[in-house]
Amino acid sequence: MKQTNLFSRPIFHCLLIITIISIVYSNTLEAPFVFDDKLVIVENPIVRDLGYMVNPSEAKVHKGHFEYESFRHRYIGYLTFAINYWFHKLDVTGYHLVNIAIHIINGLIVYWLVILTFKTPFLNSSVLGGRINEIAFFASLFFACHPLQTQAVTYIWQRVTSLSHNILLPCSGFLHFMEAYIKKTQFICHPNANIVLLWLGYFCSSRNED
Questions:
Q1: In terms of C-beta distances under 8 Å and separation of at least 24 residues, what long-range contacts does 6-15 make, across chains too?
Q2: CB distance 108 to 14 below 8 Å
Q3: How many CB atoms sit inside 10 A of residue 180's CB?
């Protein structure tokens, strides 16, 4: 039986990914609200009332507010801001912790996606097959810690980008499909569930012009 050391195990890689991302972005926890953060959170009456998230139609009373239209098309993102406000008010630390947590999840999804990709028939016999976990680990870290990601994590409003463009929701259905294909089993996720996941991803960043 092939022996694998601790440093090659996925669980160790996942823990390292979580730790490294947390350390890299730990200095952002006290970064203040800037630019659109003030419109979306500090000055937005919709975010300050969690009731609007339960019954979005009631937010029509703020129809003249700049953020009303944005709320209609980015409900998931605004829901996370409203929950943040309910727990933390205007304490930026809580908002940054959520942004970092979302980014960690994205990093882990990248890790999983790379591993599944190497298990497809096309790459299954690759000469790199013996280093799948290590390749996935470094690919995940490259994705998560690249300077281009700084805005998506540090800038609170750009959470909507992390929720949608960084494959947290839209790619989940695709991953289910890949896993089923690799295992040659029946599709493990109902097709309608994948449609829901893609729909959620759309409502995270619909009409994202930032």
A1: 8/133, 8/134, 9/133, 10/111, 10/115, 10/133, 13/111, 13/133, 13/136, 13/137, 13/140, 14/108, 14/111
A2: yes
A3: 14
The DSSP element (H or E) to which 193 belongs, if any, is helix 191-205
pTM higher than the cut 0.70? yes
Residue 46 near residue 74, CB atoms below 8 Å: no
Q: Give the per-residue pLDDT at 208.
A: 46
Token pair, residue 208, equals: 């994202």
Find the helix packing angle between 75-88 and 66-73, rounded to 10°. Answer: 110
Region 189-205 average pLDDT: 56
Q: For 37-88, what is each residue's pLDDT tens digit?
A: 888 888 888 888 888 888 887 777 777 666 677 777 778 888 899 999 999 8
Q: Work out the angle at residue 35's Cα, subtended by the Cα atoms of residues 29 and 38, and round it to the nearest 5 degrees.
A: 80
